[in-house]
Amino acid sequence: MKASVGDKLVVEGTRHGEVRRVGVIVELRHPDGSPPYVVRWMGADHESLVFPGPDAHVMTGGNTPDEERNRAPITTP
C-alpha cells in the first residue's frame, strides 16, 4: 500500500453493524508513501496514526468510496 498526502484512507466495516470509515491522509511517516499514516477522520475532529489492515485501501484523486470500490482492478501482463 502506497499513499500521498491528500489521499483518502477507507477502512471497510468487517462486522455486522460496522460502518465504513473514511479519512484524509495528512502526514506520511515514510518518504516512499508506505504506512503508517496520520489520518484526519471525516465526521470526527481528530487525527490518529494508522497502520492499515487488510480491510483498508487508499483512494487517490477525486474518487468517492463507491466509485473506487467499483473500479476494475489494474492488471499487469
Task: Explain the overall architecture.
The chain is mostly beta strands and 77 residues long. The chain has one helix and five strands, in the order E-E-E-E-E-H. The chain has one helix at residues 65-69; strands spanning 8-11, 21-28, 37-41, 47-50, 56-59. Strands 4-3-2-1-5 form a five-stranded antiparallel sheet, with no helix packed on it. Strand 3 and strand 4 (47-50) form a beta hairpin. It is globular, with a radius of gyration of 13 Å.
Q: Taking strands numbered 1, 2, ... along the chain, how are they ordered across the largest sheet? A: 4-3-2-1-5
What is the residue-averaged pLDDT? 83
Question: From N to C, what is the helix and strand string?
Answer: EEEEEH
Supply Rg: 13 Å
**Distance N terminus to C terminus?**
20 Å
Number of DSSP E strands: 5
Provide tags for this entry.
mainly beta; 77 residues; 5 strands; 5-stranded antiparallel beta sheet; disordered C terminus
Give the SSE map.
Blueprint: E1 8-11, E2 21-28, E3 37-41, E4 47-50, E5 56-59, H1 65-69
Antiparallel strand pairs: 1-2, 1-5, 2-3, 3-4
Brief synopsis:
With 77 residues, the protein is mainly β. It is 6% helix and 32% strand.
